[in-house]
Amino acid sequence: MTELLSPQPAPIGELLDLSGRTALVTGGAMGIGLGIVHRLHEAGANIVIADIAEAAADKAAQELSDTTRVRTVAADVSKAEDAETMVRTAVDAFGALDIMVNNAGIYRGSAFLETSLDLAQRTLDVNLLGVMLCSQAAARQMIVQGRGGRIVNVNSVEGVNPSVLGLAHYGASKHAVAGLIKTMALELAPHGISVNNVCPGGVRTPGLAPLLDEDAIVELEKRIPKGRIAVPDDIARVVLFLSSDLASYMTGTQVVVDGGQTLRGCAV
């Protein structure tokens, strides 16, 4: 068995160390995105916080312990020119881009029969095309650098099984991303770039409040084997893993982080 192992396996600390690498996190100003920013920064990465809310991004940057390793950029991920601007910001500030975290997303509830074309289109533009555009811009830069990279998408259990009613348009966007990464992974693997999804279940964020009140959250938690919905750091830890050398042999996969929620099936 020993011949199958590296002669000198790297220590765990080294595999998790992101020092010298640069990560771009979309929607990084709050919620799950902010949790990811904190974990990647703690692991040593330079961070670019991209968010449509510029003031919120600037405020988030001030929370970090070493602001010399942080930049912010105002951007709409559904616009190709903004995707290019985000990547250029990372390269201009830190010389490279190594980790692309597609976290930005729209999460607005609407019963299927009442969902407007505008809401459906905006959801697809941000949740699906945003992932494609930002990943294209990031991958092109990573290929030029010639040292590989990581693309990690914050997808959703709605891209696995529906868990909350009134999210058909959202679920469609997340199922589409689940399909998108498979071909992305195949095409980018020869360049040393891995592509993976993290699929959270319910997470306590500002974006959850308009969709689920506290009573609904209590009911949802009854269906979760772990007994609670997630907090942003539950997701951030898995993003850190997929961004690190611990996950160097993983690509084209979805990691479900839901406390067992999808095991219980039917939507509330």
UniProtKB/TrEMBL annotation:
PROSITE patterns: ADH_SHORT. InterPro entries: NAD(P)-bd_dom_sf, Sc_DH/Rdtase_CS, SDR_fam. Keywords: Oxidoreductase. The keyword Transport does not apply. Gene3D superfamilies: NAD(P)-binding Rossmann-like Domain. Pfam families: adh_short_C2. Belongs to the short-chain dehydrogenases/reductases (SDR) family. This is SDR family oxidoreductase. The lineage of its organism: Bacteria, Bacillati, Actinomycetota, Actinomycetes, Kitasatosporales.
